[in-house]
Design brief:
alpha/beta; Helicase, Ruva Protein, domain 3; 5-stranded antiparallel β-sheet; 5-stranded parallel β-sheet; nucleotide-binding; transcription; sequence-specific DNA binding
Amino acid sequence: MESMQNDEIYPLIVATMAHLSEGVVIANDEGDVIYTNASALSLLELGDAPRKLREIRGINIGKSALKAALQQGEADAAGRPSGRFVSFREVIRTEQGERCVEFKTGTVRCALNSIPLRVLILSDRTHERRYEAFFNHRDENAFITHDIETLNLIERVEQVAPINVPVLLEGESGTGKTRIARMIHVKSTRSTMPFVEVNCAAVPDSLLETEFFGHIKGSFTGAHKDRIGRFQAANGGTLFLDEIGEIPLTLQPKLLRALQDQTFEPVGSNRPVKVDIRIIAASNQDLKTMVQDGRFRADLYYRLAVIPLRVPALRERPADIRLLIDHFIEQVCLRLQIDRPTVTPNALQLMMDYPWPGNVRELINAIEHGVICAVNGQIVPDSLPVDIRKRANSSIRTSPTEQIDRESLLATLQATQWNRSRAAENLGIDRSTLWRWMQRMHIQPPND
């Protein structure tokens, strides 16, 4: 068959790319965009085709592509990318929320000239990323979520876990900081070695030094034999210092030295003990504010916060509440060896509207209470703890904004082009409340 000429095949290629479900962007070697198909504009929520690659949602395409090439073995000894296709993912912020986009990119040479062109193929991986997180609950150390911000946290955990650096976890009580610490340990090179946890708030100040570093026989009244401390018990593994903000200032210099030198002396001894441990610390207090107030040493803070990670409160991830309710009901029923109850719509709504000041820990308690107090195989409002029911009754009496009707809420969303942050601001509420109203009134964004 006679081969087609370039001027004949070009329109065919363009027509094909225009109808692909994946986004396609083509740029020259100077970063000027010369082609963008409709799928790319839709995926990136761009009204007009970008003129430069750097205009694509603020993503540094070149930097991300180079990093991917280095990680995927597509760079030479000097760090120059081969030009073969590599892939990377980026989370972009759009009017409809955050979206996880996979970029596959490489350079090709067009038959019409010898100038290399950069081709980007874009795919929406948001739902895939959520499903991966959902099915990860089979791992006892996994964090159950499909919230974008929390998924970003988990990605960072997986990135830093193999690297032997201190990590500081900050967040309210009950958010899952201990679970995150265990996840870091399990995914680290120390996973077969001990994971030792110390709750600094649960140990009296006078005993903390002995708890950390141990003591020798006769060092104080009641020290009838040598005892190793938690630092030595964790040798080769991970030491998790929970509620690190509770450590008294008088002990912080010795703790700092032990972290820096991996060396300490047990109480009553002047013989140094050498250890090899990784430190993960956690606090429900703002340690930076404590440093400013003189209640926590700055040098210790910066030693602990090499990698600071914030664990979000449950009220900041309202879309996870239903997911966690289902998960914990299943766990409680398996543990108690009872049939799984259903949750009535009214009971579910009470839990969706509750702000969960105790976070996931309080949710687990409420689910256990609800399962045990279920009526005829159903978790009804009266099955739930009294705090949740009282809060619901109080909200009904005192919150006039709850009287908004569906039409008004829908009009506000449409007026802000479904930008939930702006809509919530216009209504004088937070995003989690807006989300709950939308769920209650069965309002879905047009693209969901």
